[in-house]
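User: Predict the structure for this protein chain, please.
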Amino acid sequence: MALASPPRMCSMTTARLPRALLGDWGLIRRPNSSSLWLMPVGLLNDELKMAAEEESKSGGQEGTEGHQESKKQKPHPLEICKLRIIDRLFLLKHCTARFANTTKRYPLTRMIPFRWRPPHGPMTTREMKNIVWREDMPSFVLKHMRKVVVKELKETCLNVNNSDARHCVWTTVELRENSPASLAYGLQNMKDLDNMECGGILIMGSMSLKQNIEDAVKDITADDLPARGVSGPDIPSGSRLSAGQCSPEIGESRGTQSESMGSAFPSSSTSNSAAERPSCSISSIFPHFTTLPQRGSKVPVFDLSALLTDSEREELRKHHPRFREAALFFLPKETITTGAMLALWKLKGFFMYDEELLHQDSDPLR
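Assistant: Here is the predicted structure, written as structure tokens:
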């Protein structure tokens, strides 16, 4: 399904890839500021939608009904401007090292398409000079990719009917211990399913054991992230955000906006503390792919004990008893389930193709 999507060009690498494998990026404006933040808006759909609703409510109290209609009819031109960038950790690390510099921003303006630039594009010369790239972009993107995966997996539980045993979307795989040999044994005992070569394996890990592969990236917020130059704020729910004119500082009321700004942008006095820098291990004891004994075809292995944090896996277990199993076979059947599979693939691909390069780095997310 992803490979069948139309090819599009990555704005960073100029490589042409299937549309489903590229992330949507756009410009987000902070209120009362000339800065424009280049952000992965495709991962922030819920936050942006909530922010737009909050903005429309506040506009309804302050403006007239006709003014509200005109605002809906004439969105800011930057709202429809999108870039497409491949979701790869190594690429984001390279971009962060190049762009997150307050004194030399010209490389970032070079990637802005000509159709956006003045005098014919929606951007002004001043806006071109005030584009900001988050210094914590790799960890920020990873955090929100994980949120998308958790959300999609939850939705599969609400919309999937497993009454037909031959068409089960979820099947338990016996996993007596966390090892590839135990996984192979569990797959041998699985029943044959229709089109099971289109599925994948989710390793949830044991509930009684702590995360044994990755405590790689805890839920990183801008409050505890060290910064060398400009550090962008986090975007939790309840924010006042809209694409083209919105605030990366979310969850703040207008009265406390200045206070939260201080916590969102760490001071230089705390930026060099080594204790604040998160450790990272992105390896897994399981292979990226394994062979199904029933079909002889390979399917992906999504080791969620490495891809997700402990708290996120615990959230899934509390949401549905299915996720309390050590391993599951996931076979997408409907649109809602294919969305979950695509989200898993994108999260896995964020690390998997650059492992050798990332293992040479003492801190892969910086």
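Residues 142-217+280-359 form one domain.
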